[in-house]
Task: inverse folding
């Protein structure tokens, strides 16, 4: 029986709108209504499956996509979603079969690229899936991608080899050989099959080895011919002109001596100028002691060029006068032109004096200045933070060999005449492999002897991850970690691979280890990044969030710590650990006690605490929270309103009266009728409270509701007489008389009677 098309279309419209808004439960209901009209509609079934998947109901989603595939076995949306569900559920063999089918469908549609992607996913999920592997290899070959195709044929051969099917293994090696006849990887596979050793498909690289171009000896021109002016452009003189001489320090020394030589053109009248000229001459003839004396005399006569101090510092160091050298270099370090070179030369000077702590601080400062010039924005701050505790970390390790290794690496790098070009090349390579939020520093690049291996590994594993070759990426990463176990970006990459493999618990454990190491190294920002990464995966992990709070607190970022406290307390509340939630709120309030500009945060925290106390019927706790809230927000109607109610619930009549008067004063200025309604509500709840009766009567009177006011005062007077409050009753009757009731004489007689004949 055909369904109602109008009802179906209306349900689908609602379902799609709910899906767009992320309201998955409502979307599921709407899709179910649509399917009740047309049970075999693919769009409705697929939509239902997607909504179930988004609401993390994998079982329901799987049933939906299974039904869709019964109706249409070639539905690509259903196949893709089914494969995803099977992967999540750990049904890797089933997922591989699904992706194989998906690839077959794409191939039938002549979409070979999509087919290859699907077959690749199948082969990566289960080792030795020969059908998917074969289709993948053949498809790559059809596309002319000979090297990847040959590698996949060898992978297929390796699978058959493990099954002891030598005939099939040889057929696939021969298929690879047809594509790459002389490739060393194919030849190695043939040898492996003969020697019964494992075939290694990855010996076929993605790109062929570079071949040097042939040298052309005869270019068609005579030696003397230069029709394009190439000699002038690329001749020997041009190559050497302006080329850097020496490394960082030696280059700066040359710049300093050139600057000193030009002093005579700047101020020839200065008596120190001739001394500098003489000193330069003595220095060129290696008469260093005499040169130093002249430079010192020039300083005494008022010469103060940074180039003079820098040059003199190096001369002192050359003479072994290390203390004097350090003093001069400290002065030249104040000049921007000699800042980096002076700090580096200071490092070498202190190192020669065996003052390792001062040497490391100077080297690190020079390295920091150089490095932050290669990055910008937040990354500049992040890189700078890396250096903030680097020297202390080396000192704390108390390993002279590691210090010597680091210093040697720095000296080798910065002694190169092309050190500036090398710095920017290094930054480019680091940026190519750096993870988001984890910018690699030049110090990390230089302090690790295995830098080349590391950078290569990060690049290769990144490529493997993009191709979903996660097991291969993991193996490469582990090999590199064995060579450079202290290099954290490798550990981060391994954790990322674990995460992509959906080994979430192992990834979190790895990230925690990395965070601890960053903290020990004093790299707080990097540690924070790791904790935040973990909390994206496990937002309810209270232990990790507590560590993050401690970290923020340790380096004084109190606002961030307070925000995390709110999330932590909320997590405990959701875990039904209400006492722990309140404990964390109180901890945070103590932390915020002496901090300015956090009133909004305190209001938020105290409001949440008050809600919890109310839910637990802890009126005293809730009242205490609202009392604190009123200190932060004096006169706040909402807080006064709730406090009045809480005081009455505790029978604190005096406190309730004070709070009520404050609230009524606020209401009366803004909305008198609101004051009246509130007192009426309270009076109905507490009908025997004479204070409330009096306030209600007064509120009626203030709103010109005289009849109602007299009635309330009448009732109040009776209650006062019944309880023996004669004086209060007299005042109440007098108030009624002042309001002008119809029976004013009767009230006067009553007043005379109560007052003993004395009218008030």
Result:
């Amino acid at each position: 029986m055909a369904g109602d098309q109008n009802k179906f279309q209306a349900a689908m419209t609602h379902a799609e709108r709910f899906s767009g808004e992320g309201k998955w439960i409502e979307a599921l209901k709407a899709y179910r209504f649509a399917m009740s009209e047309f049970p075999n509609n693919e769009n409705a079934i697929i939509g239902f499956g997607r909504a179930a998947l988004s609401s993390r109901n994998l079982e329901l989603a799987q049933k939906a996509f299974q039904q869709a595939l019964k109706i249409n076995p070639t539905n690509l949306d259903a196949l893709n979603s089914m494969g995803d569900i099977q992967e999540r559920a750990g049904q890797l063999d089933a997922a591989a079969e699904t992706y194989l089918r998906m690839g077959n469908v794409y191939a039938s549609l002549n979409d070979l690229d999509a087919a290859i992607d699907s077959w690749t996913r199948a082969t990566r999920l289960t080792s030795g899936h020969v059908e998917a592997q074969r289709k993948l290899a053949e498809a790559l070959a059809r596309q002319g991608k000979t090297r990847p195709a040959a590698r996949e044929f060898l992978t297929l051969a390796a699978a058959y080899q493990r099954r002891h099917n030598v005939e099939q293994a040889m057929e696939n090696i021969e298929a690879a050989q047809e594509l790459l006849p002389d490739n060393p990887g194919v030849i190695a596979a043939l040898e492996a099959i003969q020697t019964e050793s494992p075939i290694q498909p990855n010996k076929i690289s993605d790109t062929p080895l570079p071949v040097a171009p042939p040298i052309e000896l005869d270019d068609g021109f005579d030696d003397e011919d230069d029709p394009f002016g190439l000699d002038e452009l690329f001749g020997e003189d041009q190559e050497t002109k302006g080329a850097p001489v020496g490394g960082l320090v030696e280059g700066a020394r040359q710049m300093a001596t050139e600057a000193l030589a030009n002093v005579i053109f700047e101020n020839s009248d200065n008596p120190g100028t001739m001394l500098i000229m003489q000193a330069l001459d003595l220095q060129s003839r290696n008469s260093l002691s005499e040169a130093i004396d002249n430079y010192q005399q020039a300083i005494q006569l008022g010469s103060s060029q940074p180039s003079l101090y820098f040059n003199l510092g190096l001369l002192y160091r050359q003479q072994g006068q290390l203390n004097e050298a350090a003093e001069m270099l400290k002065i030249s370090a104040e000049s921007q032109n000699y800042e980096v070179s002076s700090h580096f030369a200071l490092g070498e000077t202190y190192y020669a004096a065996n003052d390792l702590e001062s040497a490391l601080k100077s080297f690190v400062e020079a390295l920091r200045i150089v490095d932050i010039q290669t990055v910008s924005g937040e990354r500049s701050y992040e890189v700078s933070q890396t250096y903030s505790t680097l020297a202390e970390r080396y000192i704390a390790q108390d390993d002279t060999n590691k210090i010597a290794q680091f210093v040697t690496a720095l000296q080798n790098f910065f002694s190169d005449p092309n050190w500036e070009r090398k710095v920017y090349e290094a930054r480019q390579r680091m940026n190519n492999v750096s993870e988001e939020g984890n910018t690699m520093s030049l110090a990390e690049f230089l302090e690790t002897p295995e830098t080349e291996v590391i950078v290569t590994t990060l690049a290769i594993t990144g490529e493997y991850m993009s191709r979903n070759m996660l097991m291969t990426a993991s193996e490469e990463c582990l090999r590199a970690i064995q060579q450079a176990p202290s290099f954290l970006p490798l550990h981060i990459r391994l954790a990322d691979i674990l995460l992509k493999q959906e080994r979430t618990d192992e990834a979190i454990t790895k990230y925690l280890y990395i965070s601890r190491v960053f903290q020990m190294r004093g790299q707080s920002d990097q540690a924070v990044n790791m904790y935040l990464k973990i909390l994206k995966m496990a937002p309810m992990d209270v232990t990790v969030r507590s560590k993050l709070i401690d970290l923020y607190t340790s380096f004084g970022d109190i606002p961030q710590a307070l925000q995390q406290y709110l999330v932590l307390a909320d997590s405990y509340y959701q875990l039904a650990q209400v006492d722990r939630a309140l404990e964390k709120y109180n901890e945070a309030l103590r932390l915020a006690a002496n901090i300015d500009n956090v009133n909004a945060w305190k209001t938020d925290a105290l409001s949440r605490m008050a809600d919890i106390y109310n839910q637990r019927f802890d009126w005293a706790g809730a009242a205490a929270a609202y009392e604190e809230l009123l200190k932060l927000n004096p006169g706040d109607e909402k807080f006064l309103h709730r406090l009045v109610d809480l005081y009455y619930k505790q029978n604190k009549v005096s406190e309730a009266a004070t709070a009520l008067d404050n609230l009524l004063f606020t209401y009366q200025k803004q909305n008198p009728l609101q004051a009246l309604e509130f007192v009426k509500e309270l009076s109905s709840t507490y009908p025997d409270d004479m204070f409330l009766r009096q306030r209600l009567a007064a509120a009626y009177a203030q709103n010109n509701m005289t009849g109602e006011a007299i009635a309330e005062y009448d009732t109040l007077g009776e209650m006062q007489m019944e309880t023996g409050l004669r004086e209060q009753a007299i005042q109440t009757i007098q108030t009624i008389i002042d309001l002008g009731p119809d029976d004013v004489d009767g009230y006067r007689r009553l007043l005379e009677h109560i007052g003993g004949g004395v009218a008030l």
